[in-house]
Amino acid sequence: MKRIYLLFLLSLFFNASLFSQTAGKKSTSTYRKPTKFYISKPLRDFPDAKQVRESDKKEALDKFAEKYKKPNSKFKPHSFSTDPIVQKATGTIALDTPIVNFDGIPGTYFPPDPSGAVSPNYFVQANNIQIAVYDKSGNTIMGPKDFGYLWDSTEVGDPVILYDKFADRWFVSQIEADPSWSYWNLCVGVSTTNDPTGSYYVYDYYFDTVLPDYPKYSIWPDGYYCTCQFFPGPEKILVMERDRMLKGDPTAGLMSDTLPTSHPFGGNNRISLSPKAMNCDGALPPYGSPNFLFFFEDVNSGGPSNSIIIYKLATDTTLKTVTATVYDSLPTAPFSAYFTGGTQQDIAQPGVGNILDALDGTFNFRVPYMRFTGYNSVVLSNTVNLGGLIAGVRWYELRQNDTTLKWSIYQQGTYGPNDGVNRWNSSICMNNNGDISLAYTVSDAVSIYPGIRYTGRLAGDTLGQMSFAEQTAVTGSSSFSQGRWGDYSETTLDPTDGLTFWHTNEYVGDSNNEMTRIFSFKLNKPNGIQTLSQTKAELKVYEANGIINILATSIPTDENVVINLFDINGKQLTSEWVKPQGGKVENTISAATLASGTYLVRIGNVKFQVVKKVLITDK
Fold first, then answer.
1. Does the global pTM surpass 0.90?
2. Other Cβ atoms within 10 Å of 312 Cβ, number
3. Distance CA 167, CA 611 (A)
4. What is the pLDDT of residues 17-41, one digit of tens each?
5. Residue 256: CB partners within 8 Å, gap ≥ 6?
6. Cα-flanking dihedrals φ and ψ of residue 4, to 5°?
7. CATH topology of domain 3-70+85-521
8. What is the fold of 536-616?
9. pLDDT at residue number 182
């Protein structure tokens, strides 16, 4: 993010207060309408981005660098010996090189904050001040454009790009400040069609003097959920009215609730005030299902335990309220998220020492949520200190019982091969088969300049292990002298097959230049759970004469499968178990009582699933 972040970063260390409050707190939910709404002209018609002057890149950093290096005295780090679950060697399954691999928008501020998402036809990427659209072969379709033109503002930062596959729309956002930095807005755009270069429904939500820093969004049936680092606080959950935004309703509002504080936020970390909500990557959950919020406590950063803390988020779109309550706490294997107390002097590079930010203290963006028959999965990752300021990645798969809604840690691991290489700024993702990918930046003190690598595991592999050999997306060419890094990366799942991962991140090119990269990859050589890529399972769905016709072929199991019909908000309308015959299922669902619109058909069991849209037109 750019200078608006740096000005208020000091608040991280002075406003992360300890509180005590019970899980059954009284609701503090509020509702606000947008302060501004309009339909933008097509994004492709805005001026191309201008070259950013080197002096502009450094201005905020030079002015405020000395102001945010003080640790939070309320948290005392403890000694740490070893992480008991470190994976000390890379996996052995050969991993293919990227399918598509190209440079994105160059880094224009320190750090660039790359964010990007994939749709059936496009990849959209943004950094702090620019946005670009590419086809899935890496060709530039639009831009880079100055992102601020969409909001009619120049003081912006912290971009987020999401593709809402259930509505076939794009969600984009940034922070906006007035020129004097005296008030703040969250700016949100929802595309009016599936064309990311077209027009957007634009909403501004006013936060007065409270900075909604580091916003991170997720897609849920009843809203677009958002968490921020609120300076000067308190911490809140935000829920925007998704259904009304998709229709371009100018009154689409924002619900918010103050988060419970029985578990303290903060610590001797760089980013410790940013819990994350789940994002639907597979099928939508049943309508009315609560979302959940995740963050961790770390003894070695001064917290009371090594645990994953879970908050339940109950949203009522009729009453326009959201209520956050403490739901559970899951003890984890010991780990250390403590580096240098938030000084950002953490990660080593050749020739310049430890000057890169480890981005420690929070689960990384995003938190993918996948539904399977009988259970649901969430995957999480965060930076850990393996010892001697060598960074690795702690990762988890949590599973939720589909009936009780209780969460448990299904597997956990720390990816930290014993080679002296730092691995951090990760993004984790899961595909439709339950396979997990992990992509991250790398560097060391001797010869490895900041670059990007990736690995992964198949659903049937040994628990807690990344079974694939590490693969390189791009090799760094020089060191970076400015210290700030990230502040995040993003991996999204290709909706066309539910198997291909797309990742964007930062690396350093020639002459110390910040660069961003975009690449896609699959986890090959499947075993364990059979994969759709191996069996070529297909699902065809269409409506004719008031009947939804379903044909599934090449099904990878002879066991019973369930066919579900959902509306666009995830409400389950029908459910039927059937037995495949010769790897094939044919079925029908009556559409006689369905209103015109888009619906989702899912077929699967514990070994696979496929989801397809079907359009119901006027009968």
1. no
2. 17
3. 14
4. 323 333 445 668 999 999 999 999 9
5. 29, 30, 31, 32, 236, 237, 238, 239, 322
6. -65, -30
7. Methylamine Dehydrogenase; Chain H (2.130.10)
8. Immunoglobulin-like (2.60.40)
9. 77
